[in-house]
Specification:
Blueprint (H helix, E strand, L loop, with lengths): L8 E12 L3 E12 L3 E5 L6 H8 L7 E6 L2 E2 L5 H6 L1 E5 L10 H5 L1 H5 L4 H14 L16 H13 L5 E5 L7 H18 L2 E6 L2 H7 L2 E6 L2 E6 L1 H6 L3 H14 L9
Parallel strand pairs: 3-8, 3-9, 6-7, 7-8
Antiparallel strand pairs: 1-2, 1-4, 4-5, 9-10
Length: 260
């Protein structure tokens, strides 16, 4: 994906730290800006602070120090309901309501917002088409869908009220490799059309390179580097280089016995 034009800052971390029980620091001194319309990928190992960073944006967590600003306002000043309604949230295990049909799951936020029934139905139909979901599954329940279908419904639900910001926490991590690549490509094409501000968490280097306008590498709660995918691959920073070298090694297929 190409870098989005400079349209101003949508999300701004200013010297943000987060501690658990005032002792264990999961994030420290984070300075990071997310531009409007870009996809910023948070890359790092488990425990590096990626999901903590994500949850600070929609005020599921509150900074122990520093400030997170969304559209110029600290998250602590925002009305939390208003803040979260302008932010779509997609997670790995999807979180669909099992007793709701596909249609009711997608329509959840518009109904909370008291949209007229006709407008809500039109939006659900539009999103199902956008996500490549057949109209016939609208009346099905999540248990009746494949993993890829459930994840598409999850993305559709996050987009239902047309939020300007989308947070995605390893949304394709639980899928089989083929379905995962398909959804990565579909999401990349979708973002080219919608230009949402996206913060995308992953530990997968391939996914980061495919989807990110920029990649922010986190390690042990600290920001190591922020680069475009091309810059990331060229970086000589040792911790970035370790990721790139591991990625390139992983791409090398093992030689079969008997081959020269």
């Amino acid at each position: 994906m190409t870098s989005a034009p400079a349209n101003g800052t949508a999300i701004d971390f200013r010297q943000v730290s987060f501690r658990v029980n005032d002792t264990r620091e999961l994030l420290h001194g984070l300075d990071l800006q997310v531009d409007r319309g870009e996809t910023l990928v948070l890359l790092g190992r488990s425990g590096s602070g990626k999901t903590t960073t994500l949850k600070l944006i929609n005020h599921l967590l509150q900074p122990s120090a520093g400030e997170v600003r969304v559209e110029g306002r600290p998250t602590t000043v925002w009305d939390v309901i208003c803040l979260r309604r302008m932010i779509g949230y997609v997670i790995q295990d999807i979180g669909l309501f099992p007793h709701f049909t596909v249609e009711r799951n997608i329509a959840l936020v518009p109904r909370i917002e008291n949209w007229p029934a006709e407008r809500t139905k039109k939006r659900v139909d539009e999103l199902m088409q956008l996500m490549g979901l057949d109209a016939e599954i609208a009346s099905r329940y999540p248990r009746e869908l494949s993993g890829g279908q459930r994840q598409r419904v999850g993305v559709a639900r996050a987009l239902a009220a047309d939020p300007p910001i989308l947070l995605m926490d390893e949304p394709f991590g639980a899928l089989d490799p083929i379905t995962r690549v398909e959804l990565q490509r579909e999401f990349a094409a979708l973002q080219e059309r919608l230009h949402k501000t996206v913060v995308f968490v992953t530990h997968d280097m391939r996914e980061a390179l495919m989807l990110g306008s920029r990649i922010a590498l986190l390690e042990e709660g600290a920001l190591v580097a922020v680069h475009t995918p091309a810059e990331f691959l060229r970086s000589r920073e040792p911790r970035v280089r370790a990721y790139v070298d591991a990625f390139q090694t992983d791409l090398q297929l093992p030689r079969q016995r008997g081959m020269a």
